[in-house]
Design brief:
GMP Synthetase, Chain A, domain 3; Rossmann fold; 11 helices; five-stranded parallel β-sheet; binds xanthosine-5'-monophosphate; 10 strands; 2 domains; 321 residues; single chain; five-stranded mixed β-sheet; globular; alpha/beta
Length: 321
């Protein structure tokens, strides 16, 4: 299949997919997991074009989303695109299940399974939904097949759902850059199309080890500061992916009043990539790093150090888990 590198190719893909979706779905109903990331947003927009109100989007707040994210999903999809959108606050449910679990693959499995359960519950409340939409993209499939990592979008549906739902995955053969191209051609807002890739398990993979609510807040708050400062420095949309990690590890520090601290470090990751299979670190400006460090150490609770990860992929993955 030809890679989507131009608006014309994106338009052709959209026209083809709308026809294919209409042929697959007919007057059936689709339930879509709308995380608010570029993949599921593009799938939602394609489905809105293809079947309109026969699409029901479900946004699950699993407590591992970035600051302001659930609010933005509601604003863009419910208010601007007029989609059928159900918002589910499942924060306690996810965090309770994850308490004390430190193995990364087990965390991913719990989040994935809980996600499916929430959907199953929602689906059973809705009459006549036969299809399940998913924002699976090509690297997800490849990495799952290679056994590099479990991916919540691929497989793992309980038998009763497998029997009941047919999957609708219109971007499953696209790479991330192609999905963005399609999103742009669909007329989605710039901030959504240029949104950074974000893992399904969300901040859960960036709060390494067993997730605690306080350390998760440190991830969320430091991530918000990095995003704000990157935007102010004109780097939003230019650097491919940037975020923070808070390891399950403390080190000594000292306050301005000479009080000893024992607190977490925040790790900043900022990389450029085409399709996530390889990546290079962004050569960040020293003054910007200093500014971010000053903000994080003064504004984020429980943190006394900031580090910048300069590792390319390979050898490091983009995420820390
Ligand atoms: P790694 O860490 O393997 O990540 O270098 C490659 C890219 O994939 C994103 N990522 C995910 N995306 N669901 C997703 O949709 C996931 O479970 C997932 N895990 C990692 C990661 O952010 C990076 O862009």
């Amino acid at each position: 299949m030809e890679r989507i590198t131009t608006k014309e190719l994106a338009d052709a893909f959209i026209a083809e997919q709308i026809e294919a979706l209409q042929a697959q779905i007919g007057d059936g109903k689709v339930l879509l997991a709308l995380s608010g990331g570029v993949d599921s947003s593009v799938v939602a927009a394609l489905l809105i074009k293809a079947i309109g109100k026969n699409l029901t989007c479900v946004h699950v707040n699993h407590g591992l989303l970035r600051k302001g994210e659930p609010e933005q999903v509601i604003k863009v999809f419910k208010e601007e695109l007029n989609a059928n959108l159900i918002y589910i606050d499942a924060v306690d449910r996810f965090l309770d299940k994850l308490a004390g679990v430190s193995d990364p693959e087990t965390k991913r499995k719990i989040i994935g399974e809980e996600f499916i359960d929430v959907f199953a519950e929602e689906a059973r409340k809705l009459d006549g939904v036969k299809f399940l939409g998913q924002g699976t993209i090509y690297p997800d499939i490849v990495e799952s097949e290679k056994g590099v990592k479990a991916h919540h979008n691929v497989g793992g549906l309980p038998q009763d759902l497998q029997d009941r739902f047919e999957l609708v995955e219109p971007v499953k053969f696209l790479y991330k850059d192609e999905v963005r191209m399609v999103g742009k051609a669909l007329g989605l807002p710039d901030n959504m199309v240029n949104r950074q890739p974000f893992p399904g398990p969300g901040l859960g993979v960036r709060c390494t080890g067993a997730i605690t609510r306080d350390r998760l807040e440190a991830v969320r708050e430091s991530d918000a500061i990095v995003r704000e400062e990157f935007a102010a420095a004109g780097l939003a949309g230019k650097v491919w992916q940037y975020f923070t990690i808070v390891p399950d590890y403390k080190s000594t520090g000292i306050t301005e009043n000479s009080e000893r601290t024992y607190a977490w470090p925040v790790v900043i990751r900022a990389v450029n990539s085409i399709d996530a299979t390889s990546a290079t670190p962004e050569p960040l400006d020293w003054a910007l790093l200093n500014k971010i460090t000053a903000r994080i150490t003064s504004e984020v609770k429980g943190v006394n150090r900031v580090l910048y990860d300069v590792t390319p992929k390979p050898t490091g993955t983009i995420e820390w888990e």
